[in-house]
Amino acid sequence: MAQNAETTFPQWLQYFDSIDTTNNYAMQLTDDGLAQHGHVIWAAHQTAGKGQRGKRWENDEGNIMMSLILKPVVPADRQFVLSMCTALTIAKYLQTLYDQWQVAIKWPNDIYVNDKKACGILIENVFRGMNWVYAVAGIGLNVNQTFFPEELRHAISLHTASGKKYDLREMVTDIRSGMLNTLQQLQPAHYAGLLQEYNHYLFRRNKETGFIERSTNRYFDAYVQEVNEAGQLVLLSPTGIEQYNFGELDWIL
């Protein structure tokens, strides 16, 4: 059972020492009619952390596991805009912490620092009929973790990347503020600029990378070109330009 820490937090923040997943709790709030825009669920430990496509999210104390409840301000057919906003908010925030880092967004929602994964994002949506009423942005950020096992050799924490220790509560507050400010200022005229920024941060852009096409189990090498406005990854392979939706490819790194 999740246990609240005996610490005073602002009304917008619920903290748990331990919970199954912050996204599950946030989604339950939406089901119960208790969700509020900008509300954050933050846990020191998740017993059943999950990532994209149901993968387990490994977590360690000293990291951030949080979920931010959002009222979407974009049309339901432009869900990738919210994904871009979330990834860009975190990528740009990390760049302000240490300007020597090479920060990149690995399509669609992982944040890499110095070619290693520092953050994973899982966005779950709530619809009422055809109306997109809430989005829950689950964010797992490796912050003060000092050791990663061999099977997580492609992971990194902000501490191992900089040698510094970070204040988790301050970071949770900063990420929330950055995301809410981004959404408050967002207008349809900004979508093209967001996409340009997203592609500026795109992981391995213009570099040859290995992929596996899930439907055929085909391995191929291709150059990462860009992400288009539909949220598809555009690759240049030996057979020409190819476009892939989320879930159709695995990166081979």
Features:
single chain; 253 residues; alpha+beta; BirA Bifunctional Protein, domain 2; SH3 type barrels; 2 domains; 7-stranded mixed sheet; 5-stranded antiparallel sheet; 5 helices; 12 strands; 25% helix; 30% strand; globular
Overall description:
With 253 residues, this protein is α+β, with helices and mostly antiparallel strands. It folds into two domains: 13-200, 2-Layer Sandwich (BirA Bifunctional Protein, domain 2); 208-252, SH3 type barrels (Roll), CATH 2.30.30. Helix content is 25%, strand content 30%. The chain is built from five helices and twelve strands. The chain has helices at residues 22-31, 79-97, 158-162, 168-185, 191-200; strands at residues 13-16, 40-43, 64-70, 103-106, 110-113, 116-128, 131-141, 208-213, 218-227, 233-237, 240-244, 249-252. The strands form two sheets. Strands 1-2-3-7-6-5-4 form a seven-stranded mixed beta sheet, sandwiched between helices. Helix 2 crosses helix 4 (168-185) and helix 2 (79-97) packs across helix 5 (191-200). Mean pLDDT is 92; it is low at 1-6 and 51-57.
